[in-house]
Amino acid sequence: MTAPLILPGTTYLDANATEPLRPCARDAAVGGMLLSGNPSSVHAEGREARRFLEDARSRVAAGFGRISGTCVFTSGATEADAMAVHAFGQERRIFVGSTEHDAILKAAPEAEILPVNRDGILDVEHLRARLQETGPALVCVMSANNETGVLSPLEDVLAVCRDSGAHLHVDAVQSAGRVPFTLGGCSVAVSGHKMGGPKGAGALLLAEDEPLDALMAGGGQERGRRGGTQALPAILGMAAAFDAARAQDWAPVQRLRNRVEAAAKSVGARVASEAVARLPNTSCLILHGVAAQIQLMALDLAGFCVSAGSACSSGKVSSSHVLRAMGETDGASQAIRVSLPWNVQEAQVEAFCEAYEAMARRLRK
Amino acid sequence: MRILVAMSGGVDSSVVAALLKRQGHEVIGATLQLYDHGQAAKPGACCAGRDIMDARAVADRLGFPHYVIDAESRFRDSVVESFADAYARGETPVPCVACNQGVKFTDLLGMARDLGCEAMATGHYVRRVEGPEGAEMHRPVDAERDQTWFLFATTKDQLDYLRFPLGEMPDKAHVRALAQELGLEIAAKPDSQDICFVPSGSYVELVEKLRPEVRGEGEIVDEDGRVLGRHEGVARYTVGQSKRLGDIHTATGERQMVTRIDVPKRRIVVGPRVQVSEADSRRTVRLRDMNWLIDAPAEGVRCGVQIRAREKLREAVVKPLENGGALVELTEAAMPAPGQACVLYDGSRVLGGGFITAGDA
Predict the structure, then answer these.
(1) Which CATH number is A129's domain given?
(2) Predicted TM-score (pTM) of this structure
(3) B189 pLDDT band (50/70/90 cuts)?
(4) Which of B58, B59, B33, B60 is nearest to B46 (CA)?
């Protein structure tokens, strides 16, 4: 079965679920597939594979202003988050933001939940107070929320963590490549396919080049920090995608995002966290009185791929834990997320605006 | 036409979706998630986690969109809680009627309309016949699978919009063969059964958990209040039953049956079977929440009525009441159980139905 790149007749506006593959990432991944060697092998083919792998490592690390020894490749961000919680959460009290992704929430089920305000921004003073009351701690805060696009005040969070000696872990899946990331002194999880790379690779960036208590020791790959042969094609694709994403001018995407929000508001929708700093591509649109499920279905049947941030693996759409944490009640089950991909076209956005307005007029009772 | 198919993940509704797709319709599949499948749900019952995946696999294979609808809280409120409430009133409810009436034919059907569908199809075994005055509901060709009794509360408006392609199927073997022919992997899947939301198979446990006031043993008494024996919980009894009465039959020398359930006093009232089931007072039954699928006949209508899920028709005259109920005059006395449905038939056609109340005349 060969799959078309994009289904004919559909408009893909769900980049926060996964970005369309960037051509440079595809080329890099195909190149990776043609490398026969295992990066751990001592012979010539192994060395060649390792040369590519290490080049990718230094580029991904450089994207976060770090040296290559800080970068541990994983299967994706879920694994990177789980590794961080495993390695840095031992013997520590764990704090996680209430709007974190399940990759964090499920990795630290016993964690204390940190509240956010109505705009979805973490209450840093609350965190400071809690850290002063407790001993050694691990704090997990995402850099940008996957549903609302809200950017966390990471510098403030880091300062508070430093004051009390807590370790900060940042899930940077949605911001990587879309917003500069220069913060040091924390660990960071990223995912290749959210930047336009292939699915199947991610990385955990450490605060410094340090040993790590591995989740899977395996054959001692990644210098004993993550066992298992590296997914070279996906890793090379990720590195290429990350470079391209960081080099991209996101202002045109943001303008189109604003166009979507203006259209939604014209038919009575509300934009979650509209007034605060957000990702350039993400809108969370709350349409009162219309269940997110029916909005998604109606838009899908019209050929538009968007999502509700809270869809589970069965596809069931429930109320959003992110919006509930922000104090939304009914709105939490009436919101859809529109996340524009890196290659979005103006005509696609215009068509979406028209479809959204038509849907809202028809379904709003 | 664009048509929404309510898919449970079982053979029947999968065949419906596949048939409609083959006929060239624009099929949209929807599966209701009625409860959290993380909690133990019975594997043979409808809408557990596996069923959702099965429905999705059918849709993916045949190439039409499929959606999972979260109906958990609505199902809990409108079906499970009212199921427990009914037992707490001493009634014997029919949860499938409540589910069809609310979650399926109101909520899901409303969704189908919102999505611009021209109809909604289900895998129920009933026949929808286009009559001179609009859609009529009839018993299916396969009498073994007849589900009309469970669907009596379908309104005319809903019936007009609904399609039941399996009503014309000669038997289940035919449906399974069709599933095989259509390449559906679930062709041999077991039928769902009993009450889907009772994981343990014991509805009594669930009712006693949700309504602790019905829990606990009590007395079995006769109409005069004489104690004849003891029981282990009122939710285990239905008006008309003779089982679970211990040695009362031999002790009294007559076969006894439950005539009333007194929840506040936690008492099961019994009477001699021959005597009570032939009493004149048992010839009149009051129904509430009547749904008429014909114009309500002011003068009353002579028809057959069915007062339990699997039972023969009884002859009766049914008159509408002003409160939305109806009065049923049975030719022969019977022991209808409060909370159960009384469905009216003229031949194969469903004329309407209502819920049996405790008040008799």
Answers:
(1) 3.40.640.10
(2) 0.88
(3) confident
(4) B33
